[in-house]
Design a protein that fits this description.
Largest sheet: 3 strands, mixed
Shape: globular
CATH superfamily: Cytochrome P450
Number of domains: 1
Distance between the termini: 68 Å
Radius of gyration: 24 Å
CATH topology: Cytochrome p450
Helix content: 40-55%
Organism: Vararia minispora EC-137
Protein name: Cytochrome P450
Number of helices: 18
Bound molecules: protoporphyrin IX containing FE
Strand order of the largest sheet: 1-2-5
CATH architecture: Orthogonal Bundle
Number of strands: 9
Structural class: mainly alpha
Length: about 500
């Protein structure tokens, strides 16, 4: 008990010192953006909601304005709730807001090299260039063959086990990602690389949110042995560190061993064709390929959970909105029929499907608060002061649920993205679903291609229905979303996929 009090005293002392330091080191005496009242020392530590923080932030902005701030143990968190404020404060100074807040937990777990938390600097810039290059729209065309194979596999799985769409979807996104990254063929949804990735990202993203861990708010505490901050915390450090090593090294080891011991030159070819050619031409040496591997590995940890969550949001929206599904089926029957696989060439002729995809991005965002940025110098804007190192959050949910731009924002309505002639209305605000400025998600074209193909293929061949119980009654869905730190998606719910034309689908399987 005594040690607990000593420890609490130590935290209070460190927090006081942090506050004094923050006050003395201020370069401007303009106020921070307004926000809810703060308690001494701990500030707003107890005001940050555990879930649905984006809604609370949007609500506060009705009282305090579009830009609000919170203080947690002397750390400043600024939340920007509108497009115009985000443009004026961040986008006009993109270079200043390229950094990420210092994340002590990542240092403790050996993760500072991850693309997501890496702060700006030459290494980040170089990596970002490589990533952007390998995931730009034209590069996506190289991955189409792999994507088509994976989506066919998904259809076969759904046909044989129609009420396990969650597992099949995870397998599809994981298989596609791991195939183009390593030439690795995922066997099923229990695959160890997919599972490791999932567990890692699930734990890690929870640590990124502001106020989630005391060591990020008061980094000095990270110098203590993790056990002093509780057994639970010590276990988290150990597990995340171990999983990170697994996620980075295991697939890499798998390919390297395969290349060195197998006669299987195909795998090397996958790597060289898929990634190397993009930057270095076909003469790329294996060592260089290995380096790219490491980038890629870190990159794809960000890909699987996000894409799966958005795909499952789509399935949920279809079960809940049969009238939307019926309209989508009508368009698909008219443009594609049931005798062939849909392809990306069909995209311009499928505006309703395009609108469904746009509404999925908007309706329940996969990353409602994105990932925090931080300014690398003090910023004064609109009469407010934002200190260097503050955590800056762009509330994408608030922007995409603005009732003026999107009337009845909580209603799932693809028609809002179509003109009266049925054409897609471009909506640059939807990009906020993928972040903003120089750190905007480099995987957005990849996500776009993967999710769009998923939507169009599943709907061409299946009707997504509520599941029935033994008496033939529909099982009601209790809609529940789970927020895993920055990423969010629906929890499994009962539903089943019924083939619209089984014989036609089997004919397609035979031909492919
Ligand atoms: C529905 C799917 C996805 C959503 C909603 C999403 C969303 C986001 C958001 C909001 C950010 C933070 C951007 C910012 O800081 O402003 C981000 C960063 C990132 N995303 Fe995605 N993402 C998705 C899919 C992907 C995919 C498929 C990949 C990889 C192929 C990917 C790779 C990354 C990486 C590497 C970063 C860190 C970028 C940096 O810090 O420079 N994401 N994503």
């Amino acid at each position: 008990m005594i040690s607990f009090y000593l420890f609490a005293d130590a935290i209070a002392t460190v927090a006081c010192l942090a506050l004094i330091y923050q006050y003395l080191s201020r370069k401007s005496y303009l106020p921070f953006p307004p926000g809810p009242p703060r308690l001494p020392i701990i500030g707003n530590a107890f005001d940050i909601p555990e879930d649905y923080a984006w809604k609370q932030y949007a609500k506060w902005s009705e009282k305090y304005g579009d830009v609000i701030s919170l203080q947690v143990f002397g750390q400043t968190i600024v939340i920007i709730n509108s497009h115009s404020a985000l443009r004026d404060i961040v986008l006009k100074r993109s270079a200043t807001f390229t950094g990420r807040p210092y994340h002590k937990f990542s240092e403790m777990t050996g993760l500072l090299g991850s693309n997501i938390v890496m702060t700006n600097g030459n290494e980040w810039r170089e990596r970002r260039r490589i990533i952007e290059n390998s995931l730009k729209p034209v590069a996506m065309q190289m991955y189409r063959h792999s994507q088509t194979c994976k989506i066919l596999k998904l259809l076969k799985r759904v046909l044989s086990r129609p009420d396990e769409i969650f597992d099949h979807t995870r397998e599809y996104t994981g298989a596609f990602v791991l195939d183009i990254a390593y030439g690795y063929d995922v066997q099923d949804s229990e695959d160890r690389f997919v599972k490791d990735n999932e567990e890692f990202i699930n734990l890690f993203t929870r640590t990124i949110l502001p106020g989630a861990l005391i060591v990020n708010t008061l980094p000095i505490l990270g110098r203590l042995p993790p056990k002093m901050l509780g057994q639970e915390f010590a276990d988290l450090v150990e597990r995340v560190g171990r999983l990170w090593k697994q996620v980075v090294h295991e697939p890499y080891k798998w390919v390297k061993e395969g290349m060195l011991t197998d006669e299987d030159v195909d795998k090397e070819q996958v790597l060289v064709d898929g990634l190397g050619n993009t930057y270095f031409g076909s003469s790329m040496h294996f060592a260089l390929a290995s380096l790219i591997f490491i980038f890629v590995n870190r990159l794809f940890a960000a890909a699987i959970d996000t894409t799966t969550s958005a795909s499952m949001t789509f399935i949920l929206c279809m079960v809940l909105n049969p009238h939307v599904q019926a309209k989508a089926h009508e368009e698909l029957d008219r443009v594609i029929g049931r005798e062939r696989m849909p392809s990306f060439y069909d995209r311009p002729n499928l505006p309703y499907i395009g609108a469904v995809y746009m509404e999925i991005l908007r309706w329940d965002l996969t990353a409602p608060l994105g990932i925090q940025h931080t300014p690398d110098k003090d910023v004064v804007c609109g009469g407010f002061y934002i200190p260097k190192g503050a955590s800056v959050i762009g509330n994408a949910w608030a922007i995409l649920h603005d009732p003026v731009r999107y009337p009845e924002p909580d209603v799932f309505r693809p028609e809002r993205h179509l003109s009266s002639e049925g054409r897609i209305i471009d909506d640059p605000y939807l990009e906020y679903a993928f972040g903003y400025g120089t750190r905007k998600c480099p995987g957005r074209h990849f996500a776009d291609a993967t999710i769009w193909l998923y939507i169009v293929t599943v709907l061409t061949f299946f009707e997504i229905r509520m599941e029935k119980d033994a008496r033939g009654m529909e099982i009601p869905i209790n809609v529940k979303f789970e927020t895993r730190g920055t990423v969010r998606g629906p929890l499994p719910f009962p539903c089943t996929l019924v083939p619209r034309d089984r014989e036609a689908l089997e004919r397609i399987f035979q031909q492919s």
